Amino acid sequence: MQGFISVPFKISDANYGLAPVEGMAKFSAAGIVLEFEAKILGLMKTGVKEVRIPTAEIIDVKLKSGAFNTKIEKIFGSKIEIRLNNFATLSEVPNKDGKITLKILRADRDLAERALAMLDGNKSNPSLLENESPVPLIYEDDTKELGS
């Protein structure tokens, strides 16, 4: 079983529209991994870049379909807006006004909804994340309480 859901995306307003970005967002219990590549003036590719966003750095993730989020607007596509609490990570991805905005095709909207539901469910249910230890297992013996 796969531990993530991949959603293809575009960022068209990156670098004032001169270098549109295409990529894949992978949502999992550990967070989001963005793999993307920009095409400068539609000619030169910058190379694939990967940015990992752990759940601890995510303020919120929203799926939107226009200004009023109506059924008619959903026909034309949707977008995922990601806000982070870490500026260093935010600066690695094309962003605007402190938000990473991923444009999603209409055909991928259901996939995006499932990905966000999985991410939200994992953040609200800490038992799903209990296997993720902030302390590497190498140091397990050093972290035992004194007197044990």
Q: Can you offer a commentary on this structure?
A:
The structure is a single chain. This protein is an alpha+beta fold and 148 residues long. The chain has one domain (4-143): PH-domain like (Roll), CATH 2.30.29. The chain contains three helices and eight strands; from the N terminus they run ββββββαβαβα. It has helices spanning 71-75, 87-90, 109-124, and strands spanning 4-11, 21-28, 31-40, 44-45, 49-54, 58-64, 78-84, 99-104. The strands form two sheets. Strands 1, 2, 3, 4 and 5 form a five-stranded antiparallel sheet that branches. A three-stranded antiparallel sheet has the order 6-7-8. A hairpin with a 3-residue loop joins strand 3 and strand 4 (44-45). The radius of gyration is 18 Å and the shape is globular.
Quick rundown:
With 148 residues, the chain is an alpha+beta fold. It has helices at residues 71-75, 87-90, 109-124, and strands spanning 4-11, 21-28, 31-40, 44-45, 49-54, 58-64, 78-84, 99-104. The chain has a single domain (4-143), classed as Pleckstrin-homology domain (PH domain)/Phosphotyrosine-binding domain (PTB) (PH-domain like), CATH 2.30.29.30.
